[in-house]
Design goal:
Shape: globular
CATH architecture of the largest domain: 3-Layer(aba) Sandwich
Number of strands: 17
Structural class: alpha/beta
Strand order of the largest sheet: 2-1-17-16-14-3-12-13-15
CATH superfamily of the largest domain: QueA-like
Strand content: 25-35%
Number of helices: 7
Mean pLDDT: 95
Low-confidence stretches: none
Order of helices and strands: EEEEEEEEEEHHEHEEHEHEEHHE
């Protein structure tokens, strides 16, 4: 399949630039895959589609304040730094702009949230083929402990904020209510719609709620640039499945209950492990699984997701899930997206949700 097969035009006014007043007040478009029936609901009505014994699997990775500001110690030139992945304490791969000015050996002075120089510095150690820089941070025992004082919320590039604008709201709302393990540089957006109350109501209903961890990287949202989908090299992301979660999923499947994945990140974790072992087992590792039509899903029975960017691997995954083991899912999802635009659904990270059953 070609990358252009997953392109579509989206009016700018349908891109959600801020969250809804309440998390579970987002709209929910329900797609019944077999009948192609669509329903237009609210997210707090999700329980109408969940049954006792179902397993709701969420990604509990915590978004870190990964965007830093700094200046060149010699020239005073300004830098924007986006932390990508920690290699070791105070040792990070980053995306740095403007990258051409950050040569190996350069020293960068890190600023705090009000623009004053902090005691933290960064030294450029290396570059890679993707143009990323490896930085060693000094002036702190552990950079992760300093991020609340110096880091900004790593909002997607289509959401523009003036310095300091809505940082407090974004710090709360660009984070799930169940986030625990720090490491993501982008939110697992399908989970943003859940409230503690909705999760508790799910448990009362008899739905088993469990968690995996996948630290979301920027590659999740990057458009595919190769002409052929098969030529795209998927980014790698770290994940962890606990023994408790693996046991819960295994018991549910043996009893004939559904596994409901909240988001593409959860789907990638579960399907990656199942492809390797034939079922979900406790594991810590990395995945670069790329799911696109046609794909035979081995674990996930229902999917909660947002409305995704054109040409993105996320859109391709949802298209694969719409019609497993077939290529018709692409046409189906693009048709659903067209109807969602007609109904003025909100797209992307802060946007509305979709349930595929």
């Amino acid at each position: 399949m070609r990358t252009t097969d997953f392109d579509f035009e989206l009016p700018d006014q349908l891109i959600a630039l801020a969250p809804m007043g309440e998390r579970d007040q987002s709209r929910l478009l329900v797609l019944h895959r077999n009948s192609h029936k669509l329903e237009h609901r609210q997210f707090h009505e999700l329980l109408d589609y969940l049954e006792a014994g179902d397993v709701l699997v969420l990604n509990n990775s915590r978004v870190i304040p990964a965007r830093l500001r700094g200046e060149n110690a010699k020239t005073g030139g300004q830098f924007e730094i986006l932390l990508l992945e920690e290699q070791g304490r105070n040792d990070w791969w980053v995306m740095l702009r403007p990258g051409k000015r950050a040569r190996v050996g350069a020293q960068i002075l890190i600023k705090d949230l009000v623009g004053e120089l902090s005691e933290i510095q960064a030294h450029v150690l290396a570059t890679n083929d993707e143009g990323h820089r490896r930085l060693r941070f000094t002036g702190t025992k552990n950079l992760l402990d300093e991020l609340d004082a110096i880091g900004e919320v790593p909002l997607p590039p289509y959401i523009k904020r003036a310095p300091g604008e809505q940082q407090a709201e974004d710090r709360q709302r660009y984070q799930t209510v169940f986030a625990e393990s720090a490491g993501s540089v982008a939110a697992p957006t399908a989970g943003l719609h859940f409230t503690e109350e909705l999760l508790e109501r799910s448990r009362v209903r008899g739905v088993r709620v469990c968690f995996v961890t996948l630290h979301v990287g920027l590659g999740t949202f990057a458009p595919v640039k190769t002409e052929s989908i098969a030529a795209h090299i998927m980014h790698q992301e770290r994940f962890e499945i606990s023994k408790e979660t693996a046991r819960t999923i295994d018991e549910a499947r043996r009893a004939g209950h559904r596994v409901v994945a909240v988001g593409s990140t959860v789907t990638r974790v579960l399907e990656s492990v199942a492809a390797q072992h034939g079922r979900v087992v406790a594991q810590t590792g990395r995945t670069r699984i790329f799911i696109y039509p046609p794909y035979d899903f081995k674990v996930v029975d229902a999917l909660i997701t947002n409305f995704h960017l054109p040409r993105s691997t996320l859109l391709m995954l949802v298209s694969a899930f719409a019609a497993p083991k077939d290529v018709r899912g692409r046409e189906m999802i693009l048709s659903v997206y067209a109807k969602a635009m007609e109904q003025r659904y909100r797209f992307f990270s802060y946007g509305d949700a979709m349930l595929l059953v």
